[in-house]
């Protein structure tokens, strides 16, 4: 079998707020293999976003090791993490996180420009991806002129602009109505197959989870397979 593309070894995460310490993640262990679609479910506050942020290298573990595509994320500085994250990982959030002052195509181009891709190449790739998610007619719109489903399509195109191997999605349909949820989920499925992505997706919906290759449960900072 292939090597895992994501490995989490004995990872714990503590947050300190003055005197109060919160344990967000307790001794988590996880291997995800290339091409797997994994759903992460569990009640609010159990540590799902924390785990995603650690795997994304947005936050660092208090203890333990995290390897992403062979890189020791627990041991790298922020600059290296930002560069690797930009190349390997696409991230999708519940509230889309588009930049309001940038147009649709500019939002999608931004990660590529930040990674040093030249303007015309970034623009070409962004147009192709926006066609792929059905938004060719919205290139010059601004986020506030779009529906929730359209904003999440833009966010998906943005997540794919650097041809990542991994998509981390944190409740990507949590802010959408049920019909739009269906459409976004089938779009995610299509993109995962087409670009041979590894997917780790936080979701509250058991329905959604059932369509994944694997379901991970979390409770009180503990991870269960
Ligand atoms: P979930 O995504 O499952 O709802 P989170 O990973 O966001 O849960 O949070 C797990 C726990 O860690 C919660 O108790 C939350 O309040 C706490 N937490 C998360 N981020 C921080 C932070 N930056 N500072 C302090 N506590 C945090
Ligand atoms: Mg969360």
TrEMBL record:
Cross-referenced PROSITE patterns: ABC_TRANSPORTER_1, ABC_TRANSPORTER_2
Keywords: ATP-binding, Nucleotide-binding, Transport
A Pfam family assignment: ABC_tran
Record keyword ATP-binding present: yes
Keyword set includes RNA-binding: no
Matching InterPro entries: AAA+_ATPase, ABC_transporter-like_ATP-bd, ABC_transporter-like_CS, ABC_transpr_LolD-like, MacB-like_ATP-bd, P-loop_NTPase
GO molecular function (one): ATP binding
Domain ABC transporter, first and last residues per copy: 6-225
Entry protein name: ABC transporter ATP-binding protein
């Amino acid at each position: 079998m292939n090597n895992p593309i994501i490995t989490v070894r004995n990872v714990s995460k503590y947050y300190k707020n003055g005197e109060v310490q919160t344990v967000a993640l307790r001794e988590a262990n996880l291997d995800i293999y290339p091409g797997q679609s994994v759903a992460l479910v569990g009640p609010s506050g159990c540590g799902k976003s924390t785990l995603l942020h650690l795997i994304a290298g947005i936050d660092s573990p208090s203890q333990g090791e995290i390897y992403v595509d062979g890189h020791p994320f627990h041991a790298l500085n922020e600059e290296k993490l930002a560069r690797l994250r930009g190349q390997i990982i696409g991230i999708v959030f519940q509230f889309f996180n588009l930049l309001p002052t940038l147009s649709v195509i500019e939002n999608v181009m931004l990660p590529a420009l930040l990674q040093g891709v030249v303007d015309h190449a970034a623009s070409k790739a962004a147009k192709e991806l926006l066609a792929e998610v059905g938004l060719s007619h919205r290139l010059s719109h601004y986020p506030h002129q779009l529906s929730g489903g359209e904003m999440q399509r833009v966010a998906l195109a943005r997540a794919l602009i650097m041809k990542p191997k991994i998509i981390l999605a944190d409740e990507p349909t949590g802010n959408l109505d049920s019909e739009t949820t269906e459409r976004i989920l089938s779009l995610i499925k299509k993109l995962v197959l087409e670009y041979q992505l590894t997917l780790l997706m936080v979701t509250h919906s058991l329905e959604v989870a059932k369509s994944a290759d694997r379901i991970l449960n979390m409770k009180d900072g503990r991870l269960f397979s």
